Amino acid sequence: MGKFFVFFLFWTSCLIHVETLTKFRIGGELACAYNKDFQYEVTLYEWDVLDDDKIGLVSSGRGHGSGEFHIEGQDTHDGPRNNYFDMYLQIIHTCNSYENFRQKYNAFIGHFPIKHGEEYIKNYNINVTNAGSYMASKRKLINPALAKFNDEWSGSEFPLK
Fold it and tell me: Where is this chain's protein located in or outside the cell (predicted)?
């Protein structure tokens, strides 16, 4: 009888802690005012005091003047005494006046109430022209006579032409 009671308490506590998800479907368009091809990666994050939560997969693409993105993600909670998800998009892009330099831009997209089972569907138009800080890169001289450089990127990479 005692084993059954312990099993019953364990099973009941497991059921109580079941949490449902809050889902996000975020999409939109990135605008680049430079008349050049540019590349981008967009990642959805939930801001936290200690460590931000990456939500969903990375959306990447190429554009000329503009480019579209779409991300789907989900989360269960945001810590004690916090009733909102504080969401932002991390955008890594090459829309600047330099050739193949990447910039990282964090675009805050809002506070979303934590409602279990809720699905937020939002679209954003974001101008990334020269937006954000330049990312570190290592440049190697390929041909000293012509002073051409080969860029090697650190961190998350996407191919550049």
Answer: Secreted
